[in-house]
Amino acid sequence: MHTTVGIIGGGPSGLLLARLLHNAGVDCVVLESRDRAYVEQRQRAGILEQATVDALRAAGAGARLDAEGLAHEGIELRFDGRSHRIDLPSLAEGRRVWVYAQTEVVKDLIALQLAEGGPLLFGAEVRAVEGVETDRPSIRYAHEGREQTLTCDYVVGCDGFHGVARTAVPESERTTYERTYPYSWLGILAEAPPVYDELIYAHSERGFALASMRSPAVSRLYLQVPNGTDPADWSDRRVWDELDARFSLGEEPGWRLERGPVIQKSVLPMRSSVTEPMRYGRLLLAGDAAHIVPPTGAKGLNLAAADVIVLARALADRYATGSTELLDAYSDTCLRRVWRAEHFSYFMTTTLHTDPGQLPFDTRLQLSQLERIATSPHAAAELAQNYAGLPL
Ligand code: RFL
Ligand code: PHB
Hints:
Elements: E1 2-8, H1 12-23, E2 28-31, H2 36-41, E3 47-49, H3 50-58, H4 63-68, E4 70-72, E5 74-79, E6 82-87, H5 88-91, E7 97-99, H6 102-116, E8 120-121, E9 124-130, E10 138-143, E11 146-157, E12 175-190, E13 199-202, E14 209-215, E15 218-225, H7 236-247, E16 262-276, E17 279-280, E18 283-285, E19 291-292, H8 300-321, H9 325-352, H10 360-375, H11 377-388
Parallel strand pairs: 1-2, 1-11, 2-8, 5-13, 11-18
Antiparallel strand pairs: 3-7, 4-7, 5-6, 9-10, 10-11, 12-15, 12-16, 13-14, 14-15, 16-19, 17-18
Helix pairs in contact: 1-6, 1-8, 8-9, 10-11
Bound molecules: 8-demethyl-8-dimethylamino-flavin-adenine-dinucleotide (RFL) and P-hydroxybenzoic acid.
């Protein structure tokens, strides 16, 4: 089989790229190792930036998002026993964010791809990418028990942090910049109404906590826990008690941590990583395959979307004009935004979490920084503009 663009991975980056290329009249094939149900149910991101929402709408994938997504104009920072609201539109030139789960974005894009787009193969596990230094690279994959080869003009690795595409770049040609954090998140999905209309990011000496949501009836809540934590050690009751202690909502009118059945519980590690460059020969990397951030800034899915928006434009221009100028600039263009989001995610993470070796001095610094954000419109605007996402 031959196609113009071979896409490895049917997560948000691979699926959005396929949709954008379809709209631009460029052929592609998407190879996804998992089955459809698995990809549609994998619990992950919840927050979409303005630019991501605009791109989904423009791509014709915004109907259900507009009907069911929850537009949010602010977030709450809770520290030192009080709360401070960051108003996004007034501080970030009118931009806001949407609560619309990654599972729903993925369902919408899969439905569109299967109805209108090129081939999207589930259960197609890519084993190797070859010939990326030539003008006829190929992808070797296993599907329905058979080894197959897809030849392409370009290969795009949208296969996430543990994917194979990145390893097709010789080690001497890539550099990975990385940081791990000495804590993880325990996340639960619960059939309980959200604590409040907006997300609450809470700093506490017991550790960080986050109250998010999936709908007016379903909450998504996170707790900072030590690395290596086994979710089985956290009974539902223990999770709720700890959330209560960290949010300490006592005097906050209208805010209530209501308990309900926990329908999912998992632990996720926190890591920052960037691999440069994002292009080698005819192989391009996008989304988590090239970079990951700790989730505290809600940037991962949005960065993945930004990469493929830049890439789809570059590939469309390549086939419309024959020029490779935009493709040649792809890595540098994306990395500027990537490093900004890396810094913001690192800042949110280290300002809000309690490091196991944290000195009382460090806690005072965190509180001083949070106080600064609460009292200086400039400091608040810096946070709001990064959180709502910089314009593309
Ligand atoms: P994905 O989603 O990992 O998709 C990669 C796909 O590639 C497939 N694959 C292969 N297919 C074929 N052959 C192979 N050899 C393959 N190897 C892998 C995989 O099965 C998969 O389907 O990467 P993508 O598309 O780049 O998307 C990135 C996002 O998923 C990720 O950045 C976000 O989920 C990060 N993230 C958040 N981002 C936000 O913008 N806002 C948030 O609020 C937010 N919250 C989160 C998050 C990530 C989390 N976790 C679990 C890491 C919350 C959590 C808990
Ligand atoms: C989520 O709803 O899953 C979520 C929201 C905000 C974050 C991270 C995760 O910063």
